[in-house]
């Protein structure tokens, strides 16, 4: 079978800069060795995030021109609502400006202080918003997720036994929410199976516990289900996604991913009373019910993006692009979390740089080297992000793995960009011993990775 090319061609382009090695060294030093402090015009290939970084389509831009900016009841809201209702099936839909705004509004009205939110894995802002509501965020990933090399198809699943044990045990009455993240961004972009979601729904029903989806990558999860799970080959990605939403009591979606837009989010609900409370909160903090912090033109782009993202030709091409990128990287001598997901690849930096201890932040060292050698921006997911530190910023409890995430913006980079990144990684893998570790110079209390500053050892 001859692989098909992407189902789109490029119409508008944006230049990317190529700095000299000396300029890159100066830039990363001035940034305190934190890629969040780099300027976009210092970066050649930006794989920091797949969020809000995708390319818009001609149809989305045409729709944006029709944006209705009325304060209340804008036509654009109804077009957005119809697309979101068709996809999710939820009767109550609230637009928000991005995912974490939805988290704040929902948790403030659903979770009480002292309660527990259980997830396959909370995303970092989700975790922070659960804590800011006074509740505890508890991750119960399935056991297969701990083996980075295993080819198990659904390593994003929740551990069903652990979930049931928690609900039946002494903490059971404190569980206020079960939130399934699809796909599991915190754990290697691994998908969640429909069987796992069905089992979670059944358990939650038995214990009368609300069950929600954090569905930022609902279309990509649906595509992986269609490829890997028996019984879904004949359904469309949209039908599979709709089936997933049907199983839950509601959803949070950051639409900056599978909404194919730069900004946007959604709260979907079945419960009218909860909707009323969330709506009051939304109006006070985000905006009126029919725009929720978004412009009419954003709502238009979203209404169109939600239809484009479930196109099988698009999803197939994106999944194959990531799979090819993974093969290039693996052939260049760097291991990635297996199997490859869709929105990002996770490099096993701990294995590539065994001469660095977790306290020397091997993942972060690789992030810096990718920038120094190739102007490539990526993100550490290791002890710098997740480890427990003492007052002198020394690692007390390391993260379970030292990973680096290469997030893949939608419809943005071509095969040559990925080949370039793989080549830079290949050169690093030929002589990894030369790479030195880092130590923390200063760090904030919460959400450390965004503002931390480091120094090379
Ligand atoms: N949930 C998941 C699973 C996410 O991946 C994100 C964001 C959010 C919620 C929050 O949404 O950014 O719109 O407020 N993930 C981005 C990332 C930032 O790079 O993975 P947001």
Task: Produce the secondary structure layout.
Blueprint: H1 21-30, E1 45-46, H2 58-64, H3 75-88, E2 92-96, H4 99-110, E3 116-119, H5 124-132, E4 136-139, H6 160-168, E5 175-181, H7 194-206, E6 211-214, H8 218-228, H9 237-247, E7 250-254, E8 265-269, H10 272-285, H11 296-308, H12 312-331, E9 344-348, H13 349-352, H14 362-374, E10 376-377, E11 379-381, H15 383-386, E12 388-389, E13 395-397, E14 403-407, H16 415-430, E15 438-442, H17 448-451, E16 453-456
Parallel strand pairs: 1-10, 3-4, 3-5, 5-6, 6-7
Antiparallel strand pairs: 2-8, 7-8, 9-14, 11-14, 12-13, 15-16
Bound molecules: ligand F0G.
Index terms:
457 residues; alpha/beta; Aspartate Aminotransferase, domain 1; Aspartate Aminotransferase, domain 2; 16 strands; binds ligand F0G; Beta-eliminating_lyase
Describe this structure in words.
The protein has 2 domains: 21-50 and 311-456, Aspartate Aminotransferase, domain 1, CATH 3.90.1150.10; 58-308, Type I PLP-dependent aspartate aminotransferase-like (Major domain) (Aspartate Aminotransferase, domain 2, 3-Layer(aba) Sandwich), CATH 3.40.640.10. It has 17 helices and 16 strands. The chain starts with 20 loop residues before the first helix and ends with a strand. It has 457 residues and is of the alpha/beta class. Strands 2-8-7-6-5-3-4 form a 7-stranded mixed β-sheet, with helices on both faces. Strands 9-14-11 form a 3-stranded antiparallel β-sheet. The protein has helices at 21-30, 58-64, 75-88, 99-110, 124-132, 160-168, 194-206, 218-228, 237-247, 272-285, 296-308, 312-331, 349-352, 362-374, 383-386, 415-430, 448-451, and strands at residues 45-46, 92-96, 116-119, 136-139, 175-181, 211-214, 250-254, 265-269, 344-348, 376-377, 379-381, 388-389, 395-397, 403-407, 438-442, 453-456. A hairpin with a 5-residue loop joins strand 12 (388-389) and strand 13. The protein is globular and about 60 Å long. Helix 1 (21-30) crosses helix 14. The chain binds ligand F0G. Ligand F0G is lined by residues 49, 51, 98-100, 123, 125-126, 181, 185, 214, 216, 254, 256, 265, 407.
